[in-house]
Write a structure and sequence with these properties.
Blueprint: E1 4-6, E2 9-11, H1 29-45, H2 55-61, H3 68-79, E3 83-87, E4 94-98, H4 100-107
Antiparallel strand pairs: 1-2, 3-4
């Protein structure tokens, strides 16, 4: 199982509360929805692991049919350091990965024990 350790804390997708990301650093409901979908993809689609994923995996996981606007949010997450992106050899596809910055945001929404 892949867990990201942030300042000595083991933290996995199932540790994130199922609530909306109120008062996130983005202050944007569309970005908060995409972030919530990424947590759900990691929890349910990637065996509760913060492992790398593709746009195609995200698209296949979401029941709503992600839009071009959502793909632009992915680009913004990369540009602002919340995700990394490594393109494939052709450059059409690639793999996204979570950064400690993104995991730090998710950590704010950890369920309290």
């Amino acid at each position: 199982m892949t867990e990201i350790t942030l300042q000595g804390i083991d933290f996995k997708p199932s540790d994130v509360a199922d609530d909306h990301f109120w008062n996130s650093p983005w202050q944007n409901c569309e970005k908060e929805m995409v972030a919530r979908n990424l947590v759900k993809l990691s929890r349910y689609g990637n065996d509760d692991e913060w492992r790398p994923f593709t746009w195609q995996e995200y698209e296949g996981f979401c029941s709503h049919g992600p839009s071009y606007g959502e793909s632009r949010i992915f680009d913004e997450f990369v540009d602002t350091g919340y995700l990394t992106f490594v393109p494939d050899e052709v450059g059409d596809y690639g793999v996204f990965s979570f950064t400690p910055k993104m995991i730090g945001v998710f950590l704010q929404y950890a369920e309290k024990e």
